[in-house]
Design a protein that fits this description.
This protein has about 150 residues and is mainly beta. The protein is about 10% helix and about 35% strand. The protein is globular, with a radius of gyration of 15 Å.
Length: about 150
């Protein structure tokens, strides 16, 4: 499935009476659950992608953690869609992860809102967050680096 197909599916589900939908293809798993009186929450598990071979120059770090080693030793968690990046489920909620947080595959690291749908983004690797590359509540592009993870 490409991004446009996923977005069409989400639009259809948002307008339908369905309460829950799960689709799994080779390399992609999409699960959509509608909650009463709230926006649906979507969880994506994208296939593992090799770490970027060049450092990200245009991203502003959120935490002042100095990452002195080259970026190729880190796994890069990238955005699976276009939308608005959020570090927490709400303004009064704790952030999903911080610099130094240990993560496991399936752990939610952030949320991306796209077309009024809030999509939980899960980690595909185990490790430790060493750098957060995006400011909270800012727009992100498809495949934009979000986090650098030191693999466990």
């Amino acid at each position: 499935m490409d991004t446009k197909e996923i977005q069409r599916l989400l639009d259809y589900i948002a307008k339908s009476p369905l309460a829950e939908v799960s689709i799994e293809t080779e390399g992609l798993k999409v699960s959509v659950k509608k909650h009463s009186e709230a926006a649906p929450v979507v969880t994506y598990s994208a296939p593992a992608v090799a770490a970027a071979s060049a450092p990200v120059a245009s991203a502003a770090p959120v935490a002042p953690a100095a990452v002195e080693a080259s970026a190729d030793q880190y796994y890069t968690i990238k955005s699976p869609m276009i939308g608005t990046f959020y570090r927490a489920a709400g303004p009064d909620k704790e952030n999903y992860v911080e610099v130094g947080s240990d993560i496991e595959p399936g752990k939610t690291v952030c949320m991306i809102e796209a077309m009024k749908l809030f999509n939980e983004i899960d980690s595909e690797v185990a490790g430790k967050i060493v750098k957060i590359l995006v400011e909270n509540a800012t727009p992100v592009e498809f495949d934009q680096p979000l986090f650098l993870v030191e693999k466990a």
